[in-house]
Amino acid sequence: MDYFNEIQDALKTLANPEKAAFLPKFFKTGVGQYGEGDLFLGVIVPEQRQVAKHYWNIVSLEDLEKLIQNPFHEVRLTAIFMLVMKYQKSKTQSEMKVYVDFYLKHRSQVNNWDLVDSSSHLILGDYLFDKDRSILYDLGKSGILWDQRIAIMSTFYFIRKKDFGDTLKIAEILLHHPHDLIHKAVGWMIREVGNRDFETANQFLLKHYQTIPRTMLRYAIEKFNPEVKAFFMKKD
What's the alpha-carbon Rg for the chain, to the nearest Å? Predict the structure, then answer.
């Protein structure tokens, strides 16, 4: 059965015009901004998750392909929620790879920070944990904003397993990136490393803190004690 239209209609019935008017500003959809041209229905994330929970097991990859290419942000995010569920319920490596390949094929539609952060570590990070991770370095060096955010955010899965090496190597690739969305993501991941291994994060920051962007540094040291934070913030 074709569920493409049914899922679209389910989301449209949940649309809130006030939120639809607010979200373009929140996600920076103006000319030259990172979300330029994105469209919104005004559906809140918990309702998107409910739709995804209802359909994930019956929607086909063909329908997911159409949904993830939809111009409306919430339709794409709901498709991503369903893709994550399908991946997580996979029983074999070959089945998992189908969803990983789908994700990589359509990553140009994973084109805002919430879309990346809701999926990259749960699909790509999980899958690559015991495999060759070179694709993350390719994405990190790609020069494409969302590919680069996927690269660093995928390593969140590794961090949760107390495996920090790739996070810090990719952080070094992105250390002087011009966009604050990368500054925030890299700083966040360094902070997550520090939450589990303070000394590893501290040594990384001692090496780089004098040159990294201020936003990245602030995110990285957010949970440090006041004395350590004060030391790092003296970089000016």
Answer: 19
Which residue has tokens 């004098």? 210
User: DSSP labels for the chain?
Assistant: ---HHHHHHHHHHT--HHHHHHHHHHTT-STTSTTTT-B-----HHHHHHHHHHHTTT--HHHHHHHHT-SBHHHHHHHHHHHHHHHHT--SHHHHHHHHHHHHHTGGG--SHHHHHTTHIIIIIHHHTTS--HHHHHHHTS--HHHHHHHHHHTHHHHHTT--HHHHHHHHHTTT-S-HHHHHHHHHHHHHHHHH-HHHHHHHHHHHTTTS-HHHHHHHTTTS-HHHHHHHGGG-
Q: Is-above-0.90 flag for pTM?
A: yes
- Per-residue pLDDT of 37-81, as tens digits, reads 999 999 999 999 999 999 999 999 999 999 999 999 999 999 999
Q: How far apart are CA 160 and CA 164, in angstroms?
A: 9
